[in-house]
Amino acid sequence: MERPGSAQSPHNSVDTPTSVSPATVIDVAISEFARCGFADARLDAIARDSGMSKRMIHYHFGDKRGLYVQSVLRAIQLMHPPEEELQLDSGVPVEGVRKLLDVLYRQFTGNPDAIKLLVLENVINETTPEEFVSLRDGSTMTFHLDRLLLLGQDSGAFRPGISSFDVYTLMTSIIFNREIGHSLTRKLFGVDLHDEQNTEGLHHLLVDTVLAFLTSNIPSSGQPSYLTRQAASEDSAEPADALYSEGSSLRGGLFLDE
């Protein structure tokens, strides 16, 4: 059956470079890979749903794996809100973190297929570290969170020994479970994590959990972070745990306007 307004099917059409954008194909591929997995996803289905022929998909992405890698990278980018939404302009650490979590929760829950694809990639591990170089240390989201954490730690509002990656890990554990645990949670406990009431309830759970974690009276371990990253190369950005040391460039340079 032909598409409305189309003289021929996508498979038989003569593609032009501007007929369907690669970005459109990636968006369709994210849903296909999230639903079927890497092995069972079919380029035929992606071509049909995107309107770009398999020939042009091969032209832009090389093969199915090339399209998969680009889909994973795009899924990661979809977890990051636009920069303008991160300009929270809050000098109160608790309120700033609350607003940032609100923005991130909306961004994550608004892209469920991207989350499913990232969960799948964590299981099958199809990509390599080298394919993520373009995204490494480039998140303005963690920069803004680092800023709020340092402000809160310096003012005494937040306890020391917590980094942005600690908070990010806690946050994603809760939000990703909305997709990972949705089916079994509904079957075992009768709780639909996707309905409106529980989506809002999970939002409150996230905010309260993170703020309680940051403001509790648990004694500090003396370490700058619960979690540590692998040793960074000489030309990489400053390691996360170094950001919280007294001589950190971030600590010395972020609050000149405070």
Summarize the SSE layout with pairings.
Elements lengths: L21 H19 L2 H8 L3 H8 L2 H15 L4 H4 L6 H17 L2 H13 L15 H16 L8 H17 L1 H8 L6 H20 L33 H5 L5
GO molecular function, one term: DNA binding
InterPro entries: Homeodomain-like_sf, HTH-type_TetR-like_transc_reg, HTH_TetR, NicS_C, Tet_transcr_reg_TetR-rel_C_sf
Protein name: TetR family transcriptional regulator
What would your notes on this structure say?
It is built from 12 helices and no strands. With 258 residues, the chain is an all-alpha fold. It has 2 domains: 20-79, Arc Repressor Mutant, subunit A (Orthogonal Bundle); 83-217, Orthogonal Bundle (Tetracycline Repressor, domain 2). It is globular. The chain starts with 21 loop residues before the first helix and ends in a 5-residue tail after the last helix. One of its GO terms (biological process) is regulation of DNA-templated transcription. It holds the Pfam family TetR_N. Keywords: DNA-binding.
Mean pLDDT: 85
Distance between the termini: 63 Å
Main sheet?
none
CATH architecture of the largest domain, by name, is Orthogonal Bundle
Fold-level CATH name of the largest domain: Tetracycline Repressor, domain 2
CATH-level-4 superfamily name of the largest domain: Tetracycline Repressor, domain 2
Number of domains: 2
InterPro entries: Homeodomain-like_sf (IPR009057), HTH-type_TetR-like_transc_reg (IPR050109), HTH_TetR (IPR001647), NicS_C (IPR041474), Tet_transcr_reg_TetR-rel_C_sf (IPR036271)
Organism: Corynebacterium doosanense CAU 212 = DSM 45436
DNA-binding region: 42-61
Domain HTH tetR-type: 19-79
